[in-house]
Specification:
heterodimer, A: alpha/beta, Rossmann fold, 6-stranded parallel beta sheet, two-stranded antiparallel ribbon, 8 strands, about 10% strand, globular, B: alpha/beta, 5-stranded mixed beta sheet
Chain lengths: ~350, ~325
């Protein structure tokens, strides 16, 4: 019921041209997050932030394999998912600055990025919070006969919540078209796998066995593998055979939050992982992106990010009293026959 | 007009809405073949089938969360939580998710979800099957809270709750299910946010919810024998609250008692008292009295249960205290 996907597996899904587009997108997300860290440290961004440096291939590979009508629920580490699902970086950056031009109009912030038009039902700041809602979204698709899937992103930490287990159970019971994307980076905030998982970290996909749910093991540093696995999972789910757990092994090449001194992590670990597991470098090597081409792409995405900062800074501040604007929806739901 | 029970009123409304609107479906524990632990959904599986009358595992987090997700996708789910005590298990989804999506998204999301639940003492269910937790939800911006006390109000308010574009927690009281009442032949939607004056009076206003509406009406009849004229008002929807009707009533009567089955401390009566004293301060002739359960987890033995939760006699005593202090 599971397959091992890795660097050696047959590659079927993507042309080099499409992979180059994904390479650009991953680099855009990387530069975006680096810029966000920088601007946060400069004191420009309110609240607090989580970046997903090292996990870009997961967001990019999954979202590239989805159809435009598919929906996602993200996590507190949401910038990459949101950009990969199609939200312009300008709208994401503006949100981090709390501006009306933001993708949540300044009401959400980094942990509550929404873009309903593009199928982003919201980043969720409660670990595991999005999973049951994706089951519900997928149930709606099933009841209506829509050929769509709901995708829940979550981390290994979330697999210890009741919400995860209840969602897996209900989703499988009702065979809803949902993809559960487990981004296993081995850290629940500062707590390592050894202190939060009774299973070896690499065996976390076994949790789906309890529900009889199809599991696909994926190397999360390999965007093509992520893409292929997601396509396979999506086809399975929309065919009515039930949800799929994508167990994606990945690496958080940064702290839990921006500014996290990572006192809990062995010195040098992150540097070593960057050398061997940076998804951008791995894809670059595979595609043979030379210095000139890399610099050209890097300059483009860096300029895009820089522009997003300038636009965000020049964006519109909400009025204080706007805070009360969206507490309730007005009126009633449209009824049959008017 | 027709006479139906409170239980039938719930069922009739769900069925009527489901007949006309494919978006509406039910999820809950034991609601299909069994017809719900309170028999509310009896017969609905046969009419609507298992896709729309969905038995669920005992998974309150997933049930409520799935309701939220389906609602955001344009369905109109009605989730039954068997006992409101079990809402506590789903609090994360209700409080952090359902209530906040609209604001967090800057107005992009609507969550037209109805959560039906029931509770209440009077039959020795013990401490984990009898709580009245409505005040918890009144404290959460983004949720609407309805507590209907008559068959007519059940019909009109449940209809409006299902078609409300916001998450609504709809409370039913266990002991009211057999209560009969006249209802219009056609279901007449009742606007959420409008109180009902059940009985007009001139000396004291009793603002009561749920079972205590009926206890308060009994108390009012008793008080009348002593020459005290009592007005009984049921807010019916706790959030939003029809403060105007309550305040106008107290301006007329100059005295106020709040009455609910939930414990007094931190109960909805505290909110009512604050609203009334602020809105009718210059008219008040007595301190506002609060009637509710004593501050204890509910004990099992009938004599202890009887002692803890309030009855008509407690409302009557409170009425007399307000008059005595004038």
């Amino acid at each position: 019921m599971s397959q091992v996907a890795g660097h050696e597996r047959a590659r079927t899904g993507l042309s080099d041209e499409r992979l180059r587009e994904l390479f650009r997108e991953m680099l855009l997300i990387r530069r975006f997050e680096e810029k966000v860290e920088e601007r946060f440290r400069a004191g420009e961004l309110p609240g607090f932030l989580h970046v997903a440096i090292g996990q870009e291939a997961v967001a990019t590979g999954v979202c590239a394999a989805l159809e435009p009508d598919d929906v996602i629920a993200s996590t507190h580490r949401a910038h990459g998912h949101t950009i990969a699902k199609g939200t312009p970086v300008n709208a994401v950056m503006a949100e981090l600055y709390g501006k009306e031009e933001g993708c949540s109009k300044g009401f959400g912030g980094s942990m509550h990025l929404y873009d309903v038009e593009r199928g982003n039902l919201g980043a969720n700041a409660v670990v595991g919070g999005g999973l049951p809602q994706i089951v519900g979204a997928a149930l709606a698709f099933k009841l209506r006969g829509d050929q769509r899937v709901g995708v829940a992103f979550f981390g290994d930490g979330a697999t210890n919540t009741g919400a995860f287990h209840e969602s897996m159970n209900l989703g499988q019971l009702w065979k809803v078209p949902a993809l559960f994307v487990l981004e296993n980076n081995g850290w629940a905030e500062s707590t390592p796998a050894s202190q939060q998982l009774p299973l070896p970290q690499d065996e976390l996909g076994k949790r789906a066995l309890a529900y009889g749910t199809k599991t696909i093991e994926v190397d999360g540093q390999d965007v093509e593998a992520v893409y292929d696995a997601t396509r396979e999972a999506r086809e399975f789910a929309v065919s009515g055979r039930g949800p799929v757990l994508l167990h994606v092994r990945t690496h958080r090449l940064t702290g839990h939050y921006v500014g996290d001194p990572q006192v809990y992590r062995e010195k040098g670990e992150v540097r070593r992982l960057f050398e061997t597991h940076d998804p951008i470098e791995l894809l670059r090597a595979r595609l043979g992106v030379g210095e000139d081409e890399f610099e050209r792409i890097d300059a483009e995405v860096t300029a895009e990010v820089e522009e997003s900062v300038e636009l965000a800074k020049a964006g519109t501040d909400p009025k204080p009293e706007d805070a009360l604007r969206w507490v309730y929806a007005e009126g009633t739901v449209e009824q049959p026959g008017g | 007009m027709a006479e139906v029970t409170y239980r039938e009123a719930v069922r009739d409304t769900l069925s009527a809405v489901m007949r006309r609107d494919d978006r509406v479906f039910l999820m809950g524990e034991d609601i299909a073949e069994m017809g719900g632990s309170m028999g509310v959904t009896q017969g609905m599986l046969a009419e609507f089938g298992p896709e729309r009358v969905r038995n669920t595992p005992i998974s309150e987090i997933a049930i409520v969360g799935a309701g939220i997700g389906a609602a955001i996708q344009g369905m109109l789910p009605v989730v039954e939580i068997m006992y409101e005590d079990f809402l506590t298990i789903s609090m994360e989804q209700l409080v952090n998710q359902a209530a906040k999506h609209r604001t967090m998204s800057g107005g992009q999301v609507k969550v037209p979800l109805t959560i039906r639940t029931q509770g209440g003492a009077g039959w020795s269910p013990g401490a984990q099957h009898a709580q009245q937790l409505e005040a918890w939800f009144v404290h959460v911006p983004g949720l609407k809270v309805v507590f209907a006390s008559t068959p007519e109000d059940v019909r009109g308010l449940l209809w409006s709750s299902i078609y409300d574009p916001n998450p609504v927690v709809f409370f039913e009281h266990r002991t009211l299910y057999p209560l009969k009442g006249d209802v219009p032949d056609e279901i007449a939607p009742i606007e959420i946010g409008k109180a009902r004056v059940h009985r007009e009076g001139t000396d004291v206003t009793v603002i009561a919810t749920g079972r205590l509406v009926h206890e308060s009406l009994k108390a009012a009849d008793e008080a009348e024998k002593d020459g005290i004229s009592v007005e009984v008002v049921d807010p019916r929807t706790l959030s939003p609250l029809d403060a105007e009707t309550l305040i106008e009533s107290v301006k007329k009567t100059t005295r106020c008692v709040t009455a609910h089955e939930a414990v007094v401390q931190g109960g909805f009566g505290a909110e009512l008292a604050a609203v009334v004293q602020h809105g009718a301060f210059d008219w008040l002739d007595a301190a506002i009295e609060r009637v509710g359960a004593k501050f204890a987890p509910l004990a099992f033995a009938p004599v202890m249960e009887e002692y803890v939760v309030p009855h008509a006699a407690d409302v009557l005593e409170a009425i007399r205290r307000t008059v005595a202090r004038a």
